[in-house]
Write a structure and sequence with these properties.
The complex is a heterodimer of chains A (110) and B (112).
Chain A lengths: L3 E4 L2 E4 L5 E7 L5 E8 L3 E10 L2 E4 L6 E3 L9 E3 L8 E9 L2 E4 L3 E5 L1
Chain B lengths: L3 E4 L2 E5 L4 E7 L6 E7 L6 E7 L4 E4 L2 E6 L4 E6 L8 E9 L2 E6 L3 E6 L1
The chains are: A mainly beta (110), B mainly beta (112).
Chain lengths: 110, 112
């Protein structure tokens, strides 16, 4: 099946911990994105990457980091500097402007 | 930068009625306007899109209209069915460049 695979589906983090969310795509898309979804807030862009080994900050990058070492993979690390990380995290890839989304990782701070 | 406003935030209709969701955008350079549907527990999925060289596009029961002068676009769903219940997001960007900027979403409930 072609698409975007995010893992894990649910993730629990203790305060002060860093956690890494996985995103893999087999669509051969150059561009990949991370969005955060909170109730009533829509989708807010965290980081994006238009090409391997290059990425840019989105609107809410503080407390997050990414890497893009392979075309297929765009992992997101939620650091302890992110004070309110509980949210649904959505990864997407795109060709031209059409974005294809994964099912998301729901992160909860415990 | 671009700002997209979406209304209403919630919408409840009876099965068979029509539903309309409206969005406005601020950046006149935007020329690509997609609509995404997000079902419970899933990621958003593209359902229809429109580029600024056309004013209306239809696909079976769904249609999108664009008023470039007024900077607003709308999603129309006719003959609604319970499976249309979901959260709908509008977005705007420049075609082939720029990132999608999303509205805050509309939760549509279709009552049987």
């Amino acid at each position: 099946d072609g698409g975007i695979t995010q893992s894990p589906k649910y993730l629990f983090r203790k305060e002060g911990q860093n956690v890494t969310l996985s995103c893999e795509q087999n669509l051969n898309h150059d561009a990949m994105y991370w969005y955060r979804q909170d109730p009533g807030q829509g989708l807010r862009l965290i980081y994006y990457s238009q090409i391997v080994n290059d990425f840019q900050k989105g609107d809410i990058a503080e407390g997050y980091s990414v890497s893009r070492e392979k075309k297929e993979s765009f992992p997101l690390t939620v650091t302890s500097a992110q004070k309110n990380p509980t949210a649904l995290y959505l990864c997407a890839s795109s060709i031209r402007n059409e974005a294809f989304f994964g099912q998301g990782t729901r992160l909860t701070v415990v | 930068g671009e700002n997209v406003e979406q209304h209403p935030s919630t919408l409840s209709v009876q099965e068979g009625d029509s539903a309309v969701i409206k969005c406005t955008y601020s950046d006149s350079a935007s020329n690509y306007f997609p609509w995404y549907k997000q079902e419970l527990g899933k990621g958003p999925q593209l359902i229809i899109d429109i580029r600024s060289n056309v004013g209306e596009k239809k696909d079976q029961r769904i249609a999108v209209t664009l008023n470039k002068t007024a900077k607003h676009f709308s999603l129309h769903i006719t003959e609604t069915q319970p499976e249309d219940s979901a959260v709908y997001f509008c977005a705007a960007s420049e075609w082939s460049q720029g990132n999608l900027i999303f509205g805050k979403g509309t939760k549509l409930s279709v009552k049987p």
